[in-house]
Amino acid sequence: MPLPVRPGGFTSYGVFSPQPDRVAIVTGGTDGIGYSTAKYLARLGMHVIIAGNNEDKAGEAVRKIKEETLNDRVEFLYCDLASMQSIRQFVQKFQRKRIPLHVLVNNAGVMMVPQRKTVDGFEEHLGLNYLGHFLLTNLLLDTLRDSGCPGRSARVVTVSSATHYVGELNLADLQGRSYSPHGAYAQSKLALVLFTYHLQGLLAAQGSPVTANVADPGVVDTDLYKHVFWPTRLVKKLFGRWFFKTPEEGAWTSVYAAVAPALEGVGGRYLYNEKETRSLAVTYDLKLQRQLWARSCQMTGIPDGTGGVFPASLPRREE
């Protein structure tokens, strides 16, 4: 079943061809943007695996997606991105299925939560939003490489936010000893952009049939706002229908990044409303990308296998 043409108001990405031979993982796919992303991909015929930590919500989400898309190849696998052990167990369960992986959508996240730590001792925004996806992506890279091929690359789509424009990355204090909910959230979203650009540079330098791009969904009416200041919640409640995108609209850029023919073989892009745009200037700093990557490998306990690969092929767009 083709994906419906997007209604007016933003750039339309038209109708995509069915993709029943593709497999996708969507983190945080039980509600909000992730749910809508999973549903769109399922509507294209993909085998969709929702990764999340709420089994009660997951059962209902899977049932509804199957019912609305007439696609029975939708399933849930438990994955708590705030736990390195849970992420590793998720990857092991997925790999035991012995199926390919063509699309990984790093969507899950928390926003402006009170100061608290993951089970591994990381500040929650850093640990769940960023390090969890960093580890998950790295553990799945071999499967993505094996699944992609020239002319039909596998794709990593990482959801960031315009909040990254006000983010600051302090490598000496990633845990945020002086805690600010907004600052911690912005830093996690900034880290995701840096990570994606470095990953794309490495993939390109290695000639891998995998691309990595960032999707910015815009301001979307989801439950993520439950922890923001009450005036913001009030504005959302009163004027959300006029100033906020719906989760379905927020998912469009992720879907575009995951399937659009125009992005075949194209990576290292920051996409907003299905268009490439410039991210914060510091995200193009190759040295900072490498430093964050190395530090992230240390924090997640994986080897830094970049060796002498220098991702110089990543386009620079800070000018």
TrEMBL record:
<keyword id="KW-0560">Oxidoreductase</keyword>
<dbReference type="InterPro" id="IPR020904">
    <property type="entry name" value="Sc_DH/Rdtase_CS"/>
</dbReference>
<dbReference type="InterPro" id="IPR002347">
    <property type="entry name" value="SDR_fam"/>
</dbReference>
<keyword id="KW-0964">Secreted</keyword>
<dbReference type="Pfam" id="PF00106">
    <property type="entry name" value="adh_short"/>
</dbReference>
<dbReference type="InterPro" id="IPR036291">
    <property type="entry name" value="NAD(P)-bd_dom_sf"/>
</dbReference>
<keyword id="KW-0520">NAD</keyword>
<protein>
    <recommendedName>
        <fullName>Polyprenol dehydrogenase</fullName>
        <ecNumber>1.1.1.441</ecNumber>
    </recommendedName>
</protein>
<dbReference type="GO" id="GO:0016491">
    <property type="term" value="F:oxidoreductase activity"/>
</dbReference>
<keyword id="KW-0521">NADP</keyword>
<dbReference type="GO" id="GO:0005811">
    <property type="term" value="C:lipid droplet"/>
</dbReference>
<keyword id="KW-0551">Lipid droplet</keyword>
<comment type="pathway">
    <text>Protein modification; protein glycosylation.</text>
</comment>
<comment type="function">
    <text>Oxidoreductase that plays a key role in early steps of protein N-linked glycosylation by mediating two non-consecutive steps in dolichol biosynthesis. Acts both as a NAD(+)-dependent dehydrogenase and as a NADPH-dependent reductase during the conversion of polyprenol into dolichol. First catalyzes the NAD(+)-dependent dehydrogenation of polyprenol into polyprenal; polyprenal is then reduced into dolichal by SRD5A3. It then catalyzes the NADPH-dependent reduction of dolichal into dolichol. May also acts as a positive regulator of starvation-induced autophagy.</text>
</comment>
<comment type="similarity">
    <text>Belongs to the short-chain dehydrogenases/reductases (SDR) family.</text>
</comment>
<dbReference type="GO" id="GO:0005576">
    <property type="term" value="C:extracellular region"/>
</dbReference>
